């Protein structure tokens, strides 16, 4: 009996010290091409709300509170990961030369895209919600543009971190399409 209790205690201690599990957003298919008015675009690092700047995957409870589990983390910090996802999706959608900052090419980009996110959460309503505002600063006499966005990807209430990551990828893909069609 004492041996079983000791084994259970050791197992509990090992579980407490276990490394967290990390989840990356899988690539979402881009879909049909979109023509834009720029041959090159720099994507600035996406600005995120405080809760979405760290590694923890937050979700909305039925009461509306944002909760997380410190043992379940994003594979990369959301501002960096979403910036890279957005640049990759925009490049695939448009065929233009699009890169995340810092701009890696010798010539300057035709436009600079800045995205400010105010909501980035798997909601209790069964949707991964991504909303905020984007700004396009055109270089050399072009027309600056801005717009708001609210994208959502379906998500079952019982969804785990893998499904949350996949829904995030779809929401970012939809954001890229919205920006390409309306801002670029």
From TrEMBL:
Gene3D superfamilies: ABC-type transport auxiliary lipoprotein component (3.40.50.10610). Residues 32-180 form the ABC-type transport auxiliary lipoprotein component domain. Residues 1-24 form the signal peptide. It comes from the Bacteria. Pfam families: ABC_trans_aux (PF03886). Keywords: Lipoprotein, Signal. InterPro entries: ABC_trans_aux. This is ABC-type transport auxiliary lipoprotein family protein. It comes from Tropicimonas omnivorans.
């Amino acid at each position: 009996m004492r041996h079983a209790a000791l084994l259970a205690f050791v197992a509990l201690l090992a579980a407490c010290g276990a490394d967290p599990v990390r989840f990356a957003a899988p690539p979402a298919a881009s879909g049909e091409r979109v023509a834009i008015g720029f041959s090159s675009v720099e994507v600035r690092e996406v600005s995120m709300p405080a809760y979405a700047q760290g590694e923890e995957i937050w979700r909305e409870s039925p009461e509306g509170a944002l909760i997380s589990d410190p043992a379940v983390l994003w594979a990369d910090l959301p501002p960096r990961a979403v910036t890279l996802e957005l640049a990759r999706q925009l490049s695939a959608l448009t065929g233009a030369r699009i890169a995340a900052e810092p701009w890696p090419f010798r010539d300057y980009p035709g436009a600079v895209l800045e995205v400010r996110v105010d909501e980035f959460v798997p909601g209790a309503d069964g949707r991964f919600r991504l909303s905020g505002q984007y700004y396009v600063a055109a270089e050399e006499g072009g027309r600056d543009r801005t717009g708001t966005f609210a994208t959502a990807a379906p998500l079952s209430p019982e969804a785990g971190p893998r499904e949350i990551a996949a829904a995030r990828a779809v929401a970012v893909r939809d954001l890229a399409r919205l920006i390409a069609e309306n801002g670029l």
